[in-house]
Amino acid sequence: MEGPTPVSALIHAATMVTAGVFLVARMSPLYELAPAAGEVVIIVGSVTAFFAATVGLVQNDIKRVIAYSTCSQLGYMFVAMGVGAYGAGMFHLFTHAFFKALLFLGSGSVIHAMSDEQDIRKMGGLAPHIRATWLVMLIGTLSLTGFPYTAGFFSKDAIIESAFASQAGAAHFAFVLLVVAAFCTSFYSWRLMFLTFHGKPRARPDVMSHVHESPQVMLVPLYILAAGALLAGIIFAAYFIGHDEVQFWAQSIFRGSENKVIEEIHHVPAWVEWSPFVAMVLGFALAYQFYIRRTDLPGKLAEQHWPLYQFLLNKWYFDELYDFLFVNPAKWLGRFLWKKGDGWLIDGFGPDGVSAWVVDVTQRVVSLQTGYLFHYAFAMLIGVAALVTWFMFGSAH
Known about the structure:
There is one protein chain. By secondary structure, the protein is an all-alpha fold. Helices cover 77% and strands 0% of the residues. It has helices at residues 5-13, 19-26, 28-33, 35-56, 62-83, 86-113, 131-145, 151-165, 171-197, 205-208, 216-240, 245-249, 261-264, 270-293, 297-304, 306-313, 318-349, 351-368, 373-396. Helix 4 (35-56) runs parallel beside helix 9 (171-197), helix 5 packs antiparallel against helix 6 and helix 7 packs antiparallel against helix 9 (171-197). The chain is elongated and about 125 Å long. The protein starts with a helix and ends with a helix. 41% of the residues are buried.
């Protein structure tokens, strides 16, 4: 996220970040034979989806909102893997690549138009000035939130339905969290759209005067991704989770004889099918109320629930927790080994100690070489006297 926006798009959308999902799908033989491991994947995935979605509610950096959205969507994918719906998980990875890359590159177009500004609180009213960017961001948002017949609708709904249909112990827990995360996803996605493109401009006049649409070299990739975000679900649903999925996956994934999740998602109750759509509509309605109709409400709500707001703004204090548990102890251990182990013990009694001892001895020896003749004569006389004394005592015995 901190790098150039095209790099963010590549990493978050379809490559490094999602590599673990592909790995779990390819390791399906192991997970099919180890249901307890699948339960762990379900729990971690659903909690991740919920956690990242709640954090995304209050982020103000346009790329950071999308980055936490990626984390949340990864949670969805892993829930699918945990319940054995490997095809649904890979389908969401596939569709997510389109709409998430679209959102990242679209945010890059916004940042370019806003003279490198990334804070959505300093935007607003951009839609008339960058209409093409607004349109592709709208398509990406619709797909991310699961608007009917977009790519995200087919894949995300399939995961939520597979969580309900699964017989795994943690699956229904995951189903609830995923529906709540769908509501949060809709809210923060439309919050980003409303704060960025609608309402009154909140940028400085000199920034607004330079707002301009991106060149075609930036927009053409967005058009291609927008087509994928709209059509990939319709075109590929039959292959990933539909009637051709057995032939499509063939030997790529393994499913035990009892794994009928992909079949069962087509027979869930109607209210389960409708639950993601209802969550999406509620999220949109709340975001519209907060950021179009009553723009004073978010600030008041943040003041009333200040601890909760800070908790979400600081990402559940995971960074501070990691610092306390891992970073600070590692720093203390490293400093101790550096100062005491390396500095005092090894260097003190090793190279530094020996060299200091040699220097000390040589300095003492050098101090004996004064250069005065009478000192040398005196030392010679002492030596002669010592020799005479030695011989005298030797002859006496």
